[in-house]
């Protein structure tokens, strides 16, 4: 029995698998309770060799496709930015410009949260200016996409792909790791993931 996190009654659980482009096999899970609690999520069900993609941001690569799975980490090393998977990490498909805009949104939020800290606001403004210049093709930045499960990619002739060592892969966060996809341990992880989120570091 998997108890509802709201009322404690037994949850109704429905799962299905689908083959999808880019992400491969996905496990779709839906849980619900008579009290009204509902949660659905999708997880990449395949684990491949750990991989790293690197691409330089310029006018030519702005619209290169970026496929980030639930276990992918995206970094912009020049600015000390990192988007790491949290307990309820979600995959997405965007382009290089979209990645920059996602970071802009987070930095804007950090700026608001630290509005009474002059140094933090100055740092945020510096990062925002660099990101916007990069989107205009006036600043050279690097996007690094790493995935210990090998399900993320940058689709571009300008991207450099390399396999990661096991040591490097173990140092990465993976978000929700599915160990058993049919038993109670897995279902408890699904319930727990309903309160998780993405982790983005602005340093």
Automatic annotation (TrEMBL):
The keyword Zinc-finger applies. Residues 2-156 form the Zinc finger ZPR1-type domain. Keywords: Metal-binding, Zinc, Zinc-finger. Pfam families: jr-ZPR1. One of its GO terms (molecular function) is zinc ion binding. Belongs to the ZPR1 family. This is ZPR1-related zinc finger protein. The lineage of its organism: Archaea, Methanobacteriati, Methanobacteriota, Archaeoglobi, Archaeoglobales.
């Amino acid at each position: 029995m998997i108890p509802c996190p709201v009322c404690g009654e037994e949850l109704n659980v429905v799962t299905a698998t689908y083959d999808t482009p880019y992400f491969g096999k996905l496990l779709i899970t839906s849980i619900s309770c008579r009290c009204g609690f509902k949660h659905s999520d999708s997880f990449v069900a395949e684990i491949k060799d750990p991989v790293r993609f690197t691409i330089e941001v310029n006018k030519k690569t702005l619209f290169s496709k970026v496929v980030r799975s639930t276990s992918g980490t995206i970094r912009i090393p020049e600015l000390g930015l990192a988007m790491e998977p949290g307990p309820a990490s979600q995959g997405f498909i965007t382009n290089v410009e979209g990645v920059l805009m996602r970071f802009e949104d987070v930095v804007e939020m950090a700026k608001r949260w630290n509005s009474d800290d002059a140094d933090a606001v100055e740092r945020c403004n510096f990062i925002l200016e660099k990101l916007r210049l990069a989107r205009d093709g006036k600043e050279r930045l690097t996007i690094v996409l790493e995935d210990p499960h090998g399900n993320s990619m940058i689709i571009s002739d300008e991207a450099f792909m390399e396999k990661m060592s096991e040591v490097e892969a173990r140092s990465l966060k993976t978000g929700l790791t599915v160990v058993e996809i049919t038993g109670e341990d897995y279902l408890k992880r699904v319930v727990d993931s309903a309160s998780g989120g993405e982790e983005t570091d602005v340093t």
